[in-house]
Amino acid sequence: MLNWMHAQGLPVPRPVAAHVHRSGPIYRADLILQQINKANDLHHILCASPLEASQWQNVGKTIARMHQAQIYHHDLNIHNLMQDEEGKIWLIDFDRCYKRHGTDWQPQNLARLKRSLEKESARTSPYYYQPDDFTCLLQGYHQQLNGNPHDKAAN
Asked: Disulfide: which of 15, 108, 111, 128 matches 50 by Cβ 3.0-4.6 Å?
């Protein structure tokens, strides 16, 4: 699936190699991915400085692109979102993710990310996250879903 997402131009690391070892009903899988150069997860970025409204909107647009492709990220949290030095947002950690039909699951997926932000904000100091930041994220998310032509090139 990661190969397919990369081929679709989604912001995910490019898979390089994979190995699966099965032993009865148990398996172990190893995956080698191309490194995202000069990128940090958003959690670590938020420990040091706030994101601008436009950056939060880009996070929302990136998630919307995944949702438009029907990709369900089982563990959508602030640690699995990366930003590179050019400001591009990437998603990582797709080990239990899959394609999912419909749209009913998408609000719960976003709510999971919001809980992650609130949890980290409550336990980490300093942490540069405010509830208005999630509002900006949702603005970018809905702009992407609604096809605003000025916003498609953001990622």
From this structure: 128
